[in-house]
Every structure is written in structure tokens, then in C-alpha cells.
Amino acid sequence: MSAAILCIGTELTRGELLNSNATWLAEALTTIGFEVLDIACVDDDRARIEATLTRLTQAHEVVVCTGGLGPTTDDITTECAARLAGVELVRDEPSLEAIRERLLRFGRQMAQSNGKQADFPRGSRILPNPNGTAPGFELKLNRALAYFMPGVPFEMKAMFESFVEPAILPLLGDRHFQVLLRTFGLAESEVNDRLAGIEAEHGVLIGYRATLPEIEVKVLARAASVGEAQVRAEGGARAVRERLGNEVIFGEGKARFPEAVCTLLQAKGQTLALAESCTGGLVSELITAHSGASAVFRGGAVTYSNESKIALLGVPAVLLARFGAVSAEVARAMAEGARLAFSSDIALSLTGIAGPTGGSPEKPVGLVHYAVATATGVSDRRVVFGGNRDQVRRRAAIAGLALVRRVAQHGHEPAI
Q1: What tens digit of pLDDT does each residue of 142-197 get?
Q2: Which residues make up the CATH 3.90.950.20 domain(s) of the chain?
Q3: Which residues is 297 bridged to in the sheet?
Q4: Full-prediction pTM beyond 0.90?
Q5: pLDDT confidence of 252, banded at 50, 70, 90?
Q6: Third-level CATH fold of 257-410
Q7: Rounded-to-integer distance, Cα 68 and Cα 261, Å
Q8: CA separation, residue 122 to residues 87, 92, 112, 114, 134 (Å)
């Protein structure tokens, strides 16, 4: 069952906005079992929109579109879809009232231009949008079921999961099953090499996706029935787990690495505190990006200056003077200070040189010292990370969480 994606908007073709919708939709469609064979992006031009829609809906069973459903004159997606279907636009009064009520909740009166967002091709099925003013719609075009959704990512994602996915799943005939495993710590090439032969042995397809710092391993099986597909996929997944081990595979499904670390700490009844310098609060952001972090996370301090390291974390001034802020000694003192300040079971600290300036031959750009402290001791690491400033900060943040995970699982390594 093939699917295609069409993203509409001049701001996309000019590079003014990152087309994250295409990436998200491709993954979502692939995960539920569709073969995504085409991803297109066009500007707000009637002829090009209609030509691309015609091509895609003639070639695929499902086409999902985003963008061009707003109130302005360049939002013409709905008109183009109606022209291709050979039907007129009709105004849906319940949708119009929902738009009016939403705007009133935010203290705004509905403008005349908002009215066009309640116009739909005759015969289409309306997809409500509780997160914005632009409803979507489903329309049969050529051989395809076509779905039109707003371009705002969080609105689109909610609409897809609530209305589009349930509508297109029956088209697959329930003949597939997929297991998604998440790994950390190995390069994509090494993961691939370790899993050689599993596809042929278990009758599955294995796909990989690198999303710094993780590697997703997707084990997909297709068979005459969903039951048979599930047996194959789960058998392949067991083989993957045996080859990679629990140190590499940290979770299954949609949970990302920071969330998996929190889940591990919660299972062990441990709390976490942070002391960040070069990461500037990034680890705190990663930890609190998912609900439930409050069960684990006590708090954090962004101690960018030496003075704040002394005042908030109790780092001895003599350590800063003797070894410098970017040192193992200061990282260890920061971690212990955060553990005491927040009364946590475990604390992570990071201090380094994110660049692009500030490095020296002894302490180059990318150098990060990080440490994890518990009541029984402190473990630390020294790593020189490659990449630009953002990449150094993110890699350091994830490496720090990896050390938290290791200490939580196995305790501190014995001193050499």
C-alpha cells in the first residue's frame, strides 16, 4: 500500500521554514505499514499545486498534504482540491462557529478572512482542529484518499493521530507488525553489522534511523495475517536484543533516551539534580520535555560563571584557581554540590568549552568534563566532542545522561 506526502507553502520552497512535517509524516506512515514512495514540496501556486496533486493521487492509494489552509489570499489548497475533484466549495456552519468560539476564547473577534477556513469541497469529510482555526478534510481524488491538514506542526500531528491514522489503517488489511527498538552507544554501521543475517533468518525487514544520539532499529514483518506478522517481528526483535544487549538497547517504542533515563531512575526510586555550565540548561530541557519528570527531577542550577559555581554549588575557589573551571576536579565538585543542594540521590554536572572560541592547546574547543555523584562516590569523564557549538552542547548533554544511566545501573567504577 503506497503513500505520498505533499507539503505546500512558498516559505518551504524558499527555505524560510524547515520542512519538519514531511519527516514526521514519512516516519508515521512507515511505522503503521505504508510504503512512502514520494515526498513533494511546492509553493503557493495554483498550477503547480494542482499538477502535483494530480500526479500523486493518480499514483498512490493515500496522499497526505499539509499547508495552505489558512485565512490569507495565498492559502489556496482547498480551492485547488475542489477544482481537481470537480466540485464547488461549500461553507460548513459548525466549523465556522468553532473558529469563532476559539478566537473569542483568546479575546479576538473573527475576521472576515477566517470565514474561508470553513469552506470545504462538497462531499469531503471534515477533520476538526481543536488546536487551531484551520480544520482539515478528507477527499477522494483519482485513485487516492487525500487528506489535507494545516501546516502548523503540532496541529498537523494531532489531526493525523486522531483522524487520519484511524481512517487509513483498515486499508492495510492488518497484515503487518513492527517492533521499534531504541539503541544508544554504537554507530549505525556497527549496529548494522551486528544484526547481519537476522532478516533472512526470521523473514523480517530491518530499518535504521540515526537521530542523534540514538539509532532506531525497526523490525517489520508482513504476512498473510497480523498474527503471523507479529510472531515474525517479535522473533526478529528477540534476535536483535540478543545481538545488541541491554546496555545498547535502552527502550522500545517512542520513548527517547532522556525519558528512558528518567524511567530507570523512577524504577529504582532515585532522584536527579543537575549542575550545568557549558550546556546552559539543555539537560534540564531534555529531562523535562516529557510528562512525569517531576517524579525524578529535583532541580538544576546553570552555573556559567565561577562566582555562581562557588555561591550556588559550594565549589572551592582554590579548585577553580588551580585547575580552572573546565577540569575534572571542578566537575566532580559541581556534581557533589548539586547533590547536596537539591538533596538528590544522584547528580550530574557538566563544564566545558562549547566553542567556537575559548579553546587552547591544553583545553581545546569541544572539551567537556562531566561527573555523576551519589552518596557512595563520584564518577567523571573527559571527552573532546566534535561539531559546532550546538552539536557539542547536545552531545555533552546526552553523554552526561548516559553516565547517569550507567551509574544508576551498575554503580561507580572502582578506582584504578
Answers
A1: 999 999 999 999 999 999 999 999 999 888 876 778 899 999 888 889 999 999 99
A2: 257-410
A3: 272
A4: no
A5: confident
A6: Maf protein (3.90.950)
A7: 40
A8: 6, 10, 21, 19, 17
The cell 493521487 sits on which residue? 57
CATH of domain 176-252: 3.30.70.2860
Question: How many angstroms separate the Cα of 217 from the Cα of each of 9, 31, 44, 131, 164?
Answer: 33, 12, 37, 32, 25
pLDDT at residue 15 is higher than 80: yes
Mean pLDDT of 52-56: 98
Q: Where in the chain is the domain with CATH 3.40.980.10?
A: 2-172
**DSSP for 280-341?**
TTHHHHHHHTSTTGGGTEEEEEE--SHHHHHHHH---HHHHHHH-SSSHHHHHHHHHHHHHH
At residue 92, the pLDDT reads 94
- DSSP 8-state assignment for residue 109: P
Which amino acid, residue 75?
D
Instruction: For the chain, give percent helix, strand, coil, nearest 5.
Output: 45, 25, 30
The CATH architecture annotation of domain 2-172 reads: 3-Layer(aba) Sandwich (3.40)
What whole-number distance in Å separates Cα of residue 68 and Cα of residue 163? 19
**Cα–Cα distance between 260 and 255 in angstroms, integer?**
6
Q: Round to whole Å and give the CA distance between 9 and 76.
A: 10
Whole-angstrom Cα distance, residue 64 to residue 62? 7
Helix, strand or coil for residue 240? Answer: helix
